[in-house]
Design brief:
By secondary structure, the protein is an alpha/beta fold. The chain has 9 helices and 5 strands. The chain has a 5-stranded parallel β-sheet with strand order 2-1-3-4-5, sandwiched between helices.
Amino acid sequence: MLVAGLVAPPAALAAPRAPLVWAFGDSLSAGYGLPPADGFPSQLQAALRRAGIAATVRNGGVAGDTAAQARARLRWGLRGLGVAPDLVIVELGANDMLRGLPVAQARANLDAVLTELQRRHIPVLIAGMRAAPNLGSDYGRAFDGLYPALARAHRMPLYPFFLDGVAANRTLLQADGLHPNRRGVSIIVGRMLPAVTAALRQRQD
């Protein structure tokens, strides 16, 4: 019921939408081998809310995806969200590296992903990866330099290594030695949280 002379406020003003974060990546984002509640999106959402940010984190990870495969599904993935996300965490390249694919190929596909998000004015946090030592020093230098170069080129924030504090620690990994267990994900989230909150607050400003 409306009172004469008063106008009901628009719903968008009465109830602002909670920030939406999209974790767009591979099995590391998807929480491979874990119950959904223990995966990266769920743990990050809980951590953000404990920090006073009522964000929703949606899972955009597909196990096994290379940068090329993720590039191919980017647009329909964004459509599936229904609204433009307030932040996309781009976590890709690990499968390119594990398969020994050319670094230039990974860079071109990641560049295309970042360019499309930039074109849509969607903020991005790049989550980097590091090459396994068995791939050789030349490949390692080229691959490890990929993420800082892209961050500079697109002027986007970079979290240098998604598995920081977890990689090579068997107590924080699943039996395959590659994917983090629940405790490992918790450490990843804790270390990445300041970068995520900074990116979201910059968006709000």
